[in-house]
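Single Protein Entry

Contents — chain, fold
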Amino acid sequence: MSQFSRLFWIEWKKLFADKTIRKVVFIVPIVYLSLFGFLYSQEKVTHIPTVVVDADQTELSRELYRGFDADETFGIIGTVGTEAEALKWIDEGKANIALIIPAGLEQDVKAGRAAEVLTVIDGSNMMISNTAVRASNTVVKTVAAGATLKKLEAKGSWGEEGMALYTGIDFRYRVLYNPTFSYLSFMVFGLAGTVLQQVLFLGVALSVSQEKEQGTWQTSIATNSFWTITASKLLPYLLAGTLNMFLGFTLLLKGFGVPYSGSTVDLMVVATAFNLAVLSVGYMISYLFRDQLQSTQIAMLIAVPSFMLSGFTWPFLSMPPAVAAIGKSLPLTYFLDGVREILTKGHGLSAVTEDVLVLAFMTLVSLFVAYLIYAFQKRKTAVSAPESSLG
């Protein structure tokens, strides 16, 4: 047997002999691909929350309403009296689309005057905005064509004479928050959060497991309180993570000129809550597993798919409920929602209160679980110490 063949078979046997490596190579890819398959199983964005302003109150305006209601892209959640009210719904996140039907629409159409319908779209999620522009244009043109056919049928006019009866309803749209459909403004914030999260996850997850491998962990928990260990482990990474967050977003916003609207101070408040949540989850993971390899694998298992599951690109309303539930249990989801509210929409801290509270709750739960494990391990160490001295 050649040297190459011998080494090949040694590594091949190791691949199947090591349970951890076997899982990483053969199980993790299947888990990820299955998750992503379920994530996009709906294939397109549907039932986008839509609010309607019908200032015309005519048969034609009701036909437009029915057209939007029948199209699966839109999910009409209510009607309001004015455009200002509809814009408030979008600004508050209640709706992503507003259909504005102006007064006098049917009268202008019958008289052959210029008539138009406006669709206002939340552009902070490009999957929603791109889908909404195409679908709303189709509905408006379909209704206009139907109105033309009704006029032709009523007049009995076809050919050249019928062309004069063509009903033109111009489709107009306005995109809020990202009017140029810039992928730089859309994607870069999400990717930045993902990278910074991954660094923190890996760093703190390796911190405790490294001591376990070196054999110093039992001594640490025997001689130090939980909060002393926790503060000493998390504070350096919190400072490093906060610095990375500041430098990273400064680079994006000032160095690359990515457009933004809100306060960077507000962003750092959300970023601090996010860093604490990520560190606490990673810290808890490091308590649960015996070595750096296992801690790294679990941290990566959480970090890698979190961007796709965060709702930042593919909205929760188009995810299966089980997949959406996984996404809503991840810290990155709430950080990216905060980034969108502050930097993209220009809102203040009041708009991200829920995000900050959820991140704080994740921090507390993770630290509580870590404390329970610490207490168990400390008790176990205290019991084994007298037995060792008796031996």
